[in-house]
Amino acid sequence: MRFLVFCLPLLLAVPAAGQSHAAADSLLSQQDTTGAIQALERLLQREFRDAEARWRVGQLYMSRHPTGASLSPNRRRAEEHLRYATRFAPDSAKYWLALAAVFRGEDWGPTRMQVEGIIERAGRAAEAAGDTALIADAEYRAGRVELERWEHYGNRWESMGQRLTEISAQGDWRLVEQFYNEQARAIPESGVTAAENGERHFRRALQVRPHHVQAAAGLVVLLGAQDRWSEALETARQLVRAAPDSGMSWAIAGLVYSRMNRWSEAQVSFTNAFRRFTPAERAPFDNLDGLLRRADRVRLAQMSPAQRAQTRELYWELSQPLMLTGLNETRTEYYARVTMARLRWSDPYLGHDGATTDRGAVYVRFGPPDVEAIFGRENLNWVYWATRLRFTFRLAPGFANAYLGPVSRELFEQVDRDLPGRFDNVPIMRDLDTITTQIAQFRGDSNRTDVAVFSWVPVDRMIGGTDLQTLGVESAAILRNDGGEVQRVRREETLDPRSAAAAQHRTWRLSLPAGAFYLRVEALAAVVNAAARHSEVLTVRSYRGTQFNLSDMLVTRRLAPRDSAPTRWTDFFIEPTAGRIEPGEVVSLLWEQYNLTTTPEGTARWGVELRVNVSSIERQGSLARIVGAIGDAVGTSALGDDRITMSWEREGTPGPDGTLIEFVTLDFGDAPAGTYTITLVVTDRVSGRVVERTRVLTRSEVEPERE
Question: Contact, 258 vs 289, CB < 8 A?
């Protein structure tokens, strides 16, 4: 039926020979395929040599042939009629191309081997008739034959040492890297003849019909495979000028711009493509299944269409590399992947959607492979260095179709279950540095919560070592929820790259209602294309009510009251930390206590327990001394060699708003580098209510690495 929908306008547009085809045309206009076939078969009993009737009935039989199947009675009847059509009208390119399409859909090698010769006959007939539309179609189809040949014979490699299958059996990725770097090499000029012939045919098609989208697509695929993206861009631009109303022509331009890392132009091109796509053309681009884990796909499928659309938009908003810019390179890259997969591996005759073939599914999920190598006749390997993944495909001889081998299919099933799509090939994602943060929540004004975000921005890694005297760095803290962006605090600075290491800390103060938010902290040095970010889901607590509660425990490098009677965290000079201190530094802790129950005399009494657990260190050294506001009132107990607990009792009078502030300084002494978990437990001795807060602290000389 899909074939009929495709062919119906074409069939109805062909003038009938006098009135002899009128009955079939009438039935076909009502989509009565059976009646139209019967009418044409009756006509052929009288007019056996009517080539046009043969062509029409052949097309209708093919409309009944199951898409993707090889043989069927309907396909055999279609072939019979089209053979007669070419015999009775050998100068008609249209009939030869129809016969080539039938042969193209059969998976038996000898039959498919005839396709090239049939297309050549079609091309000669079209040239003789001077029919530019049929010349272009014949050249395009000849180019597709060569493209398939290149898919099979291009990218040939040879092994000069141990066999890759033997290395893979050992399961050592270092051996795989060694194999590709030292024991194997690409065979020069492999597939070059097919590439040259395909390029010649595609260019000829575009010469006579510049708006032939499929020919331009084939040429872009071949040029891109040879890293000739500048030439591919010229092809795409010419196509857009020739076919500006075609969504696919704009998508092809978007693909090329993406591969040239011209993301702004790529994004504009895909925006133009979406404005022109039909719903059916747009559907593959809106489908996120190829990026999602299996369980997430199930959840998405259970949503209503409106919920799926909202989820898709939210997915791309949160996937945006930098919210500081107007670009969404990951979304654009996904569109480029879908475009390439559909251009390169789709096969309408065999029912293949390129994005859902084995190669297309891997490509959409992980992008272009770092290594694409064919060993022998059928062994195609794709390697992704960042994820340490290698997929092996089996090439079907003569088809350029490829299927995952048993081991690789099992691997893809695993990653499909556990690993969502990745964008390691997008430069900004590959080079994006990491901002570390410490977030502390305090009771704010008007039933809101003060959220303090202390960030360590790797400015030195971003701009250090550049030759510029000064460099602009833009940074921001951005909050979103289901309704969109809630708050953005942005700043611009001009820094000296030589002293960038001294400007790596940022503090953001946000006033928020209780609820769930998505937080981004970003930094961008646009001149040198350097960026860093932190992202997390932030649940903002409510401090409304009269029950005893605690702020977060704030960990700082240094802490000093601004005056002799501090009552809130803002009354302190704070040198923040984003969760890391260097050996030798002391740690100051600060927290606020709200609504402690008081005695009739107005006094609050509470107990504090502070636990320091070693999460991951070399077991040596000790926590040397604890000093600060608690003085000698601290009781200390050591539990083994990886935990220390401090406890003390306190009393005081809360302020008018029910707030009491506490702070303490810890000196880790010669405790070694590692990860420590600090747990604060405060007990209201009057009400008996207990509240706990936890903070993880890294003690290390080494700056946090890029994630």
Answer: no
Residue 435 has pLDDT above 60, yes or no: yes
534 contacts 434 by C-beta, under 8 angstroms: yes
pLDDT per residue as tens digits for the range 317-346 = 999 999 999 999 999 999 999 999 999 999
Amino acid at 469: Q
Q: What percent of the chain has pLDDT over 70?
A: 91
CA–CA distances in Å: residue 269 to residues 217, 252, 257: 15, 8, 8
Name residue 275's amino acid: R
Asked whether the CA dihedral 312, 313, 314, 315 is positive or negative, the reply is: positive
Detail the DSSP E strand segments found in 444-597: 449-456, 471-481, 484-495, 505-512, 515-525, 530-540, 549-550, 554-561, 572-576, 580-581, 586-594
- Residues 397-411 pLDDT 10s: 666 688 999 999 999
Cα–Cα distance for residue pair 384/388, rounded to 1 Å:
6
Decide: residue 25, CB within 10 A, 0-12 exposed, 13-18 middle, 19+ buried: middle
pLDDT for 170 equals 67
Give the residue carrying structure tokens 């959607």: 353
Q: Which residues, in sequence order, are CB contacts of 611 under 8 Å at separation 6+?
A: 643, 644, 645, 646, 677, 678, 679, 681
At 8 the pLDDT is 43
Taking alpha carbons only, the member of 24, 17, 83 closest to residue 52 is 17
CA-wise closest residue to 485 among 324, 311, 271, 303: 324
Nearest CA-CA partner of 610 in 587, 585, 594? 587
Angle at 637 between CA 635 and CA 640, to 5 degrees: 170
- Alpha carbon distance 436, 532 (integer Å): 10
User: How does residue 632 score in pLDDT terms, banded at 50, 70 and 90?
Assistant: very low
Residues 547 and 689: beta-carbon distance below 8 Å: yes
CB atoms within 10 A of CB 13: 7
- 338 versus 7: the higher-pLDDT residue is 338
Q: What is the mean pLDDT of the chain?
A: 87
Rounded Cα distance, 24 and 176, in Å: 62
Q: What span, in angstroms and rounded, lies between the C-alpha atoms of 158 and 149?
A: 19
pLDDT of residue 707: 66
Go through 461-470 and write b for each residue having 16 or more CB atoms within 10 A of its CB, e for each that does not: bbbbebeeee
From CA 701, how far away is CA 218, in angstroms rounded?
54
**Tokens 């059916």 belong to which residue?**
280
Task: Please state the rounded mean pLDDT for residues 507-524.
Answer: 94
Asked whether the predicted pLDDT for residue 220 surpasses 60, the reply is yes
- Residue 249 tokens read as 């022509």
Which of 539, 519, 316, 366 has the alpha carbon at shortest distance from 441? 539
Compute the residue count for the chain: 707
CA distance 670 to 557: 17
What does the pLDDT read at residue 9?
Answer: 43
Cβ count near 265 (within 10 Å) = 16
pLDDT tens for 354-409 read 999 999 999 999 999 999 999 988 899 999 999 999 999 998 766 668 899 999 99
| Secondary structure element (H or E) that encloses residue 463, with its range | helix 459-463
User: Which pair of structure tokens corresponds to residue 238?
Assistant: 């010419």
Start-to-end Cα distance in the chain:
50
User: Can you spell out the DSSP letters for 263-315?
Assistant: HHHHHHHHHHHHHH--HHHHHHHH--TTTS-HHHHHHHHTS-HHHHHHHHHHH
Between residues 407 and 624, the one the model is more confident about: 407
